[in-house]
Amino acid sequence: MANARELALQTLTDILIDGAYSNHALSEQIEKNELTVQDKNFMTELVYGTLQHEQLLNFYVTPFFNGKVKAWVRILIQMTLYQMLFLDSVPEHAAISEAVKIAKKRGGQFNGKLVNAILREMTRTPLPSLDTIKDEAERLAVETSHPLWLIKLWSKQFGWEKTIQMARANNERVNVTIRVNGVRGTREELKQKLESEGITCEYGNLSQDALLILKGNVIKTKAFEQGWFYVQDESSMLVARALKPKHHSKVLDTCSAPGGKTTHVAELMRQTGTVYAHDVYEHKIKLIKDNVKRLGLTNVVATLQDATTLNERYESDSFDAVLVDAPCSGLGILRRHPEVKITKQPSDLDEIMMIQKKILNTVAPLVKVGGTLVYSTCTVNRKENDKMVEQFLAQHPEYELDPTLVNRLPEVLHEQTKNGMVQLFPGDYQTDGFFIACLKRQA
Ligand SMILES: C[S@@+](CC[C@H](N)C(=O)[O-])C[C@H]1O[C@@H](n2cnc3c(N)ncnc32)[C@H](O)[C@@H]1O
């Protein structure tokens, strides 16, 4: 049987040194190795916890290093300190002795002794205090392990209180939420089905389609196999409702993979009309097709196409509704992808904005007069969200914002839905940070 801590260290080095994505690196290790359910959970906790608090752990461990240590040694110390500070269930001596064993196995006696000496010293000496950081933005950045540029960006765009809320919320655990497949049955029926399979769940906080999973692995259920639901954050479930596709209509989904919103739109159309789904990556088209198949949907056509060239494939005025769920900086999903806090650079934001702009300009003529264009992102950055939409409107007078969006959103969001746009913040309703704008083509 594989060792969960050793595999967690390997996963962390894959992510932090070799630039792997956390979800991919973790599932690869889990698939490759024989682990108990308990060990899988522990390993996941170690990987996500260490990544989530990486900057804080780094702040704590740095004074204990004299000279240079190997990158994996630093990560091992951080991962062990994470257990000592955040996991009540792990005794300190167990965390330390396991780390020493791993260090010896991986780097011989020298590294074993080094790790032992550093960790023992940490138990004797107080860790540095956050109060020594005088600047409040820098202090929040370290306390919550966010890059300083992001703390400053949010603070400028949304204010200090909101920034604190978001930064802290990003270190909270993520709930699993699922969306009922309305073609199969109702949310109530799904709840009963899951409960009969030993899953504990309750209705979601925001979406009329959502169930919040409190206990049990939903992916292992018959209901999953039979296509009764799709695993999705509640914020994402609001998009298809915002688009409000009519039965028998023709819908274009420009950036579809893995198909969360495509399938929701198709479900709302109750197997009528067609949803044309595209993505720029070949391997991702398979993900869309697999999801469409599992959910039993017959009104989706998924094909490879770069969204910036969709005007070469379709005539102007072709679609009743177009969804641009754009590639974005992902600053709303840091709870799920904590490595982004470490890897994302401000220059990445400019690059992605160019693509968003290009996609919007390309698809603008494809919407029929009177049709709907929904633009959404899983980010919290005004330049990619409301400012992007404003810029689009300035160049496309044939469009205007659709204030009726508010009627298609849950009541709790009415106050923050302004003139056809809504920004959800991490920490508000236990969802991801998310943005939706609804536009109508007038001429
Ligand atoms: C936010 S994700 C889409 C999520 C999807 N709509 C869902 O609900 O499951 C953005 C998608 O855009 C795709 N993408 C990136 N650049 C693209 C482009 N130029 N054309 C089409 N798709 C693109 C990415 O591969 C990614 O799958």
TrEMBL record:
MF terms in GO: RNA binding; rRNA methyltransferase activity
Q: Name one GO biological process term.
A: regulation of DNA-templated transcription
Signal peptide start-end: none
Residue limits of the SAM-dependent MTase RsmB/NOP-type domain? 166-442
Catalytic activity as recorded in UniProt: cytidine(967) in 16S rRNA + S-adenosyl-L-methionine = 5-methylcytidine(967) in 16S rRNA + S-adenosyl-L-homocysteine + H(+)
Broad class of the protein's primary localization = cytoplasm
Instruction: Please indicate which superkingdom the organism of origin belongs to.
Output: Bacteria
* CDD domains in the record: AdoMet_MTases
For this protein, what is the EC number?
Answer: 2.1.1.176
- According to its UniProt record, which residues of this chain constitute the active site? 378 (nucleophile)
What is one cellular component GO term in this UniProt entry?
Answer: cytoplasm
The places in or outside the cell where this protein is found are: Cytoplasm
User: Which residues does S-adenosyl-L-methionine bind?
Assistant: 255-261, 279, 306, 325
Xref: InterPro entries = MeTrfase_RsmB-F_NOP2_cat (IPR049560), MeTrfase_RsmB-F_NOP2_dom (IPR001678), NusB-like_sf (IPR035926), NusB_RsmB_TIM44 (IPR006027), RCMT (IPR023267), rRNA_ssu_MeTfrase_B (IPR004573), RsmB-like_ferredoxin (IPR054728), RsmB/NOL1/NOP2-like_CS (IPR018314)
Keyword entries, A-Z = Cytoplasm, Methyltransferase, RNA-binding, rRNA processing, S-adenosyl-L-methionine, Transferase
Family, according to the entry, reads as follows: Belongs to the class I-like SAM-binding methyltransferase superfamily. RsmB/NOP family.
- Report the protein's function: Specifically methylates the cytosine at position 967 (m5C967) of 16S rRNA.
Q: What is this protein called?
A: 16S rRNA (cytosine(967)-C(5))-methyltransferase
Query: What species is given as this protein's source?
Result: Turicibacter bilis
